[in-house]
Fold this protein.
Amino acid sequence: MRCGFGRGMTRFKRLPTGASRVGSPIWFLVLLIVCLHAATVFAGTNEGFSLVVLPDTQIYAWKLPDLFRAQTSWVAENRERLNIRYVLHVGDVVEHNDDREWKIARDAFSALDGKVPYAIALGNHDMGPKGSAKNRQTLFGKYFPVEGFKQWSTFGGVYDGEPDRGDNSFHVFQAGGREWLVLALEFGPRDDVVRWANEVLGKHPNHPAILITHAYLHNDGKRYDRAIKNQHYPPQKYRVDEGPGGLNTGEDLWRKLVNVNRNVVMVVSGHVCVSARLSSKGEAGNRVHQMVVDYQNQKRGGNGWLRLLRFSPDGRKVQVADYSPVLHEWTDHPDRRFVLDLDLP
């Protein structure tokens, strides 16, 4: 989703540049400070494991492919140091749902192939003519075919109503002495997709589950809700709602899916800038952390910002921080650097 507004712009620590400063004592002092700062963000990189969230990359696919490739290349290069187990894309991979942009996305993700598996949730710009979301037709499957995903040991399957499409999928991976589940759902998931998602979660009751979907949490920290009239770009605005199977907003997904499954520990979404989070209790008394991250309204479509989720060795604590491999910067903003405690099943 294109954002025409900004909210809580990020404060940064910038790594100095310029070859003339490399030999100066001040340069080494600043470099030491930056390295120590990074260490406080993700202490003990030889323990625990990490997930990487890729926020809306649509501007990169449209205009700045080098930034897209910089993100995925950085993940590949740091996969062992940070023990990166999965990459989660929250949708709007491309802007116009055309071959040129999907080819760029395919090229960017090729840096991860055979190194780090990934799950992709489709956004509104990934659907319909020119990314209009007037229907659910997408070129995603042409460039990311289901048959390719089936070669992965971590790939669980796709929505049973569309066995040849990867628009809705689940993934299972091992980390921290347990198995985890990632559930990737389409923009404004249809009712039958929610039925399938409930069945997947029900079949894996002991797997901590992370749901990724494009439009779930608004940047005011409230879920997308038909009852709230002033939210930007609500899912029900798009004509995919007119097709068979309807459309579910964030509040709908909470009520029908997240709230009723004890094993859901986290929901991550994109769609609106820049970031917000919400913790809610499910009907079993479990805590569910929900977050939105999307940098597309910043310079150069987001300057390569991504989100790292660093899990403790037992998986019960998560250090969250946003990082740009393009700017070589960590954020200090409290909305984008924080710690979560997980209620694991």
